[in-house]
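Example for tutorial group B:
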C-alpha cells in the first residue's frame, strides 16, 4: 500500500493519497486548498483515483474535491447528511472499496453532524474529530460537545490501539500518532463524565 501525507493550504491541512500500489486503484482523503502537490503525486504514482473521501463538509477539507474529480473522474464520498452533493452517501458501518483497499466508515458527530472516520489497513483518518494531542472544535455551526464526548468515548477509544492516527490538520507535536498513544497522552481523552467533558469544552 502507498500512503502519502501532504500538508497543504493556509490552515495546515493534511490531505492523503492512498493507493493499493504504484499505478493501482486509489483514493484521496480530504482534498484541501492548494491541491496541486497532491495532483502531482497522483500523476507521479500513476494512481487511478476512484474516490474522494471527505471526513466532513468544512470547506478546508473539500475545497479540492472538484479538481480531483476533474482530473481523475473520482466519485465524492461523504456521510449521508453532508451538504456536498456527493455521488456516494455513507453511514456508520458502511465500507468503500478501491482495488484491494477497504475503507470502513465510523460516524463521529461532534465537530460537525457529518463527521466520519475512515479505518483502513492499520490506519484511521480522523479528520477534525481527533488531532494529535487535541480534538476538533465544537463551537462552530453543527458542533455539539455532547456528541463529541459520545464519539470520542464510545467510538474512538474502542478502536484498536495500534491504528495509526491520520489527523486532518498538522496541529500536534508529530504529524501522526496511534490510538493507544492518544488514549495515554491526549488530555481530551482523559477520564471525565459527559457533563464534565461538556463543561470542559465550553470553558
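The residue assignment follows.
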Amino acid at each position: 500500500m502507498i500512503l502519502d501525507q501532504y500538508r497543504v493550504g493556509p490552515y495546515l491541512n493534511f490531505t492523503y493519497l492512498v493507493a493499493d500500489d504504484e499505478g493501482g486503484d486509489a483514493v484521496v482523503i480530504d482534498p484541501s486548498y492548494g491541491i496541486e502537490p497532491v495532483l502531482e503525486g497522483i500523476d507521479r504514482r500513476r494512481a487511478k483515483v476512484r474516490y474522494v473521501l471527505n471526513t466532513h463538509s468544512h470547506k478546508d477539507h473539500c475545497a479540492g474535491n472538484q479538481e480531483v474529480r476533474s482530473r481523475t473522474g473520482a466519485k465524492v464520498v461523504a456521510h449521508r447528511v453532508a451538504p456536498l452533493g456527493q455521488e456516494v452517501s455513507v453511514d456508520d458501518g458502511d465500507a468503500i472499496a478501491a482495488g484491494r483497499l477497504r475503507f470502513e466508515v465510523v460516524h463521529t458527530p461532534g465537530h460537525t453532524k457529518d463527521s466520519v472516520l475512515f479505518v483502513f489497513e492499520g490506519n484511521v483518518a480522523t479528520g477534525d474529530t481527533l488531532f494529535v494531542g487535541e480534538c476538533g472544535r465544537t463551537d462552530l455551526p453543527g458542533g455539539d460537545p455532547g456528541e463529541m464526548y459520545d464519539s470520542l468515548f464510545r467510538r474512538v477509544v474502542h478502536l484498536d490501539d495500534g491504528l495509526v492516527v491520520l489527523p486532518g490538520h498538522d496541529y500536534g507535536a508529530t504529524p501522526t500518532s496511534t490510538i493507544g498513544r492518544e488514549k495515554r497522552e491526549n488530555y481530551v481523552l482523559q477520564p471525565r463524565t459527559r457533563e464534565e467533558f461538556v463543561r470542559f469544552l465550553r470553558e
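The two ends are 42 Å apart (CA to CA). Compare this with the pattern of hydrophobic and polar residues in the output above.
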